[in-house]
Amino acid sequence: MDFFEVLKRRRSIRAFEDQAIEEEKLRAVLEAVNLAPSAGNLQAYDVYVIRDARRRTALVNATLGQGFMAQAQVVLVFCTHSKRAEIRYGQRGVELYTLQDATIACTYAMLAAAALGLSTVWVGKFDEALVREIAGVPAGQRPVAMLPIGYAAESPQTPTRRELRDLVHEVV
Q1: Distance between CA atoms of 147 and 138, rounded to whole angstroms?
Q2: Count of H-run helices and E-run strands, the chain
Q3: Are 121 and 145 within 8 A, CB to CB?
Q4: Can you tell me the distance from the alpha carbon of 80 to that of 106, in angstroms, rounded to the nearest whole number?
């Protein structure tokens, strides 16, 4: 699929089919994550892959009742890895660059999934301590985004977007 077509077709999906994701597709999504740009090419993030149905169900509670977490076949948990950035960038690396790195990687995963005919929704509303426990995230890492992935069981309308004139500001 053409890149700009991927951008146009991608939607936030909150209902998933009970259909397994092919291993080669998941691998392609994870390879896209590994290609994401990062500050100093340090890749100051880690990704936890949750396939287990029991853990995905536990994520429903951790996301304050977002039931689609259990429907998705896979959930990727994107975490900052502060020590990787702190070495080169100090506190700014810990507070900002790791967050940017993890969220850029999540965006790459989202777009790769869309290009492969898979669906996702960005999840940022969750109890960090519960997600840390469910995913086995070690100290020094912080969960900042989750990406449930699966085959869509819904087809939402195209959302309205802001006009470029309201969004983009030319500085002269």
Answers
A1: 19
A2: 8, 4
A3: no
A4: 11
Neighbours of 92 (CB within 10 A): 12
- Condensed to tens digits (0 to 9), the pLDDT of residues 49-98 reads 999 999 999 999 999 999 999 999 999 999 999 999 999 999 999 999 99
Angle 130-121-111 from CA coordinates, rounded to 5° = 125
Averaged pLDDT, 25-38: 98
Q: What pLDDT was estimated at residue 1?
A: 76
Q: Report the predicted TM-score, pTM, of the whole model to 2 decimal places.
A: 0.96
Residues 138 and 80: their CA atoms lie apart, in Å, by: 11
Q: Which helix (H) or strand (E) holds 146?
A: strand 141-150
Q: How far apart are CA 143 and CA 102, in angstroms?
A: 9
Q: Domains in the chain, ordered, with CATH?
A: 3-154 (3.40.109.10)
CB atoms within 10 A of CB 25: 18
- Provide the residue type at 66 as one letter: Q
Q: What percent of the chain has pLDDT over 70?
A: 100
Encoding tokens for residue 28? 């392609």
